[in-house]
Amino acid sequence: MPPLSDVVVVLALAGMLAVAFRHPSGRVEALVGLGCAGVTLATGLLTSAEVRAAVTDLAPVVAFLVTILVVSDICARAGVFTAAAQRVGRWSGGKPALLFTGVFALAAVVTAALSLDATVVLLTPVVLSACLARSVPAGPGIYACLRMANSASLLLPVSNLTNLLAMPDLDLTFTGFALRMAPVLAVVLVVEYVGLRLLFRRDLTGDPSRTRRTWNPSPSSRSWSSA
User: Fold this and answer.
1) How far apart are CA 88 and CA 102, in angstroms?
2) How wide is the angle at C-alpha 147 spanned by C-alphas 176 and 106, nearest 5°?
3) Which of 76, 150, 175, 220 is 20 to 30 Å from 166 by CA-CA measure?
4) What pLDDT was estimated at residue 209?
5) For residue 4, what are the contacts with CB-CB under 8 A and spacing of at least 6?
């Protein structure tokens, strides 16, 4: 039978995962997190020195993560994502395949530059709202955003929280990390793009001549407008 402390830690972890899955209010999440952390520390598995060392190591990473999320939110409020989506819509000329390609590239850039959280939380709703308003299949664009939030986060240390946590233990600079991961990312992007094109081949072969409207989400309504 495992020690009581191990059982407590496992239950605390399960509780936090359950709360994250249910995603209640921020206050509830914070209280549960603090409570689980307190119960875990009460087991005595970690000494006070070890706790201080862990907090000291993680503080810069957490601070950067908070900062990049704030920057991303400001970009969203300023209409940066909507403006970028408008450019993609105009560039595609209403052709589903080109539209998908533009969203794919946009999601990859946003993920690499602003982190995967920005793509999931801020860019994906813009794409989804535009698709729903235009009554076009949302699958290709949504999957492009979600897949790029995962795959394009390989490139830079700032693209993914896991990258940031790993950086102190890697003998790499920021540039060195990017150069090491760039070939991997290139292969992954090709595989992702081809795979999604095959998966949504029916949605991406629509006839653009049936409508003269193009994907152009407005800053206010994030809906499609007439060309």
Assistant:
1) 5
2) 75
3) 76
4) 46
5) 43
Beta-bridge mates of residue 134? none
Under DSSP, the state recorded for 210 is: G
- Counts of helices then strands in the chain (DSSP H, E): 10, 2
Q: Which two tokens stand for residue 71?
A: 């920057």
Q: Where are the domains of the chain?
A: 4-45, 73-226
The type of residue at 172 is L
Give the whole-angstrom CA distance, residue 176 versus residue 164. 14
Query: How many alpha carbons fall within 13 Å on the CB side of residue 63?
Result: 6
Residues 6+ apart with CB under 8 A from 98: 91, 92
- CB of 216 closer than 8 Å to CB of 227: yes
pLDDT tens, position by position, 37-95: 888 888 888 888 888 888 888 888 888 888 888 888 898 899 888 888 888 878 877 78
DSSP 136: S
User: Percentages helix, strand, coil for the chain, rounded to the nearest 5?
Assistant: 80, 0, 20
- pLDDT of 135 reads 67
Q: Residue 101 corresponds to which tokens in the numbers above? A: 């390609």
**pLDDT of 223 above 50:** no
pLDDT digits (tens, 9 = 90+) for 111-157: 999 889 889 888 998 888 777 766 678 889 999 999 999 999 999 98
Closest CA to 4 of 49, 44, 36, 32: 44
Residue with tokens 């492009």: 144
